[in-house]
Amino acid sequence: MKFLFLYRKSPDPRDQPSPADMQAGYMQWKSWMAKHTKEILEQPPARSGPKPGGTSAVCKAGAVTDGPYVEGKEIVAGWSFIEAESLARAVGIAKEVPMFTSVEIIEITTF
After folding, report:
1. Which CATH number covers residue 47?
2. How many structural domains compose the chain?
3. 24, burial (CB in 10 Å: exposed 0-12, middle 13-18, buried 19+)
4. How far apart are alpha carbons 108 and 5 in whole angstroms?
5. Mean pLDDT score, 26-46
6. Which one of 9, 69, 84, 105 has the lowest number of neighbouring Cβ atoms within 10 Å?
7. Residue 31: predicted pLDDT
8. 3-state secondary structure labels for all residues of 38-107
9. By residue range, what is the domain housing residue 29?
10. Per residue in 68-108, pLDDT tens?
11. Is the pTM of this model over 0.90?
């Protein structure tokens, strides 16, 4: 199964990390990417898009809800394409994502 991870965060300047926190977060990000190198796809699957009737979820502060129902006050700050054997595995990977307020998980397919 292939998934799109949308990384979301608050656009409020008061919620932005300090330079030291950004550096620490970047190190955590690199560590997360190294741990999940087999699941993170280098590029999006060719001619892909949301899978009709596919699975989705939102992981926020360790809590997982059916998705995609994100808060309108969050912005997309980045994305990755992930390959995992199930939604449960994708959620497990998303729970470990550092630095972002929430991760929206959308199953995708190729056409």
Report:
1. 3.30.70
2. 1
3. middle
4. 10
5. 92
6. 69
7. 96
8. CCEECCCCCCEEECCCCCEEEEECCEEEECCCCCCCCEEEEEEEEECCCHHHHHHHHHCCCCCCEEEEEE
9. 2-110
10. 555 567 788 889 999 999 999 999 999 999 988 889 999 99
11. no
